[in-house]
Amino acid sequence: MIWTAVLVSALGCYLLKLAGLSVPQRVLDRPYVRRVADLIPVTLLAALVAVQIVSDGSRLVFDARAVGLAAAVVALLLRAPFLAVVAVAALAAALARLV
Amino acid sequence: MTRTTGQPSRRAVIRDGIGVGLATGAYGVSFGALGVTSGLSVAQTCMLSLLLASGASQFALVGVLSAGGAPVTAVVSALLLGTRNTLYGLRLAPLLQLRGLRRLLGAQLVLDETTAMAVSQRTPQLARVGFWSTGIAVFTAWNVATLGGALGGTAIGDPQDYGLDAAVGAAFLALLWPRLDGSGPWIAATLAVTLALATVPVLTPGLPVLVAGVVALLIARRPPSQEAAKTRTEQP
């Protein structure tokens, strides 16, 4: 039964990914669809960052992760390279956990 | 991105992609450990990372099963969260222009990480480089880490101990950063964050992020601002 769930969900999720890539160009060219497509990365990824940083899945929690993200924002404002931003966040969070 | 050096080179994009892949892929350890403690076999846990290959859906599936939920409910949860990747496809399709076998292979790599990396590039060529380098790195790391977690639990190290939870959030923020130019994207992002965090206490994990997509559907109903028009001429 678990195998069935594993395989059915795997197939379904693959088809969902493929469906997005297979939307015909004439649909993508519609102004509304273009605006949605432009906004999707910003909205979903901003929400993803927020949920990853200040929630534990069911509650809002401010902990070392928020310290790490704050450090990342400072690094971004200083125009640090991408991997430096990531490293600064990890370091700040790890240090905050030690304190 | 390495904005201080102007146009990021192909090499820099590959390097960043591998960095994102390793940081987020390391979370496969958590998934592998959770899978086996939820009653799945090592093979089932690894097959999920290999075939389903989408963190949010995998955690949802295993979460429902471990809570004693019906397999049908588990599958529906995984599929519901999988629609996030369909939405990403709307943006990636015109950007990547994948055809034939490349589309079939690339589809498996349509993820948060690859979308974030692809849309943050300045040219379609670099977007493709970012998509594939990030996708291959995250897929490889995710599967190796899943196997490690399934066999050894988090004894080999909890990603949190290394500050990786903050690193993953920072990586997505850094990729999002260049997109937050002007008031339009900021308003959209702020509304999305607000809606997601407001629904965290009442929705199952994963859903708040998807719900935030409603913000995109609503804002897009307004006529395009000058800013949106500008973005469209810059990108294919």
Keywords:
heterodimer; A: 99 residues; mainly alpha; 5 helices; 80% helix; B: 236 residues; 2 domains; globular; disordered N terminus
Could you explain the architecture of this structure?
The complex is a heterodimer of chains A (99) and B (236). By secondary structure, chain A is an all-alpha fold. Chain A has helices at 2-21, 25-28, 31-54, 64-77, 82-98. The mean pLDDT of chain A is 95. Chain B has 236 residues and is mainly α. Chain B is 73% helix and 0% strand. Chain B is globular. The model of chain B is unreliable at 1-6 (pLDDT under 50). At the A-B interface, helix 1, helix 3, helix 4 and helix 5 of A face helix 1, helix 3, helix 4, helix 5 and helix 6 of B.
Task: Kindly summarize this structure in a few lines.
The complex is a heterodimer of chains A (99) and B (236). Chain A is mostly helical and 99 residues long. Chain A has five helices and no strands.
Give the arrangement of secondary structure elements.
The complex is a heterodimer of chains A (99) and B (236).
Chain A: H1 2-21, H2 25-28, H3 31-54, H4 64-77, H5 82-98
Chain B: H1 10-25, H2 28-37, H3 42-52, H4 55-66, H5 71-96, H6 100-107, H7 112-119, H8 124-152, H9 164-176, H10 183-199, H11 207-219, H12 226-234
The tally of beta strands of chain B, per DSSP, is 0
Query: What would you call the structural class of chain B?
Result: mainly alpha
Largest interface: A-B, 77 and 101 residues
Residue share in helix of chain B: over 70%
Order of helices and strands of chain A: HHHHH
Count of structural domains of chain B: 2
Q: What's the alpha carbon Rg of chain B, rounded to whole Å?
A: 18 Å
Q: What is the typical, i.e. mean, pLDDT of chain A?
A: 95
Percent range for helical residues of chain A?
over 70%
Poorly predicted residue ranges of chain A: none
| Cα-to-Cα separation, first versus last residue of chain A | 46 Å
Largest sheet of chain B: none
Shape of chain B: globular
**Biggest sheet of chain A: strands, sense, closure?**
none
* Record field, number of beta strands of chain A: 0
How far apart are the termini of chain B?
20 Å
Helical stretch tally of chain B? 12
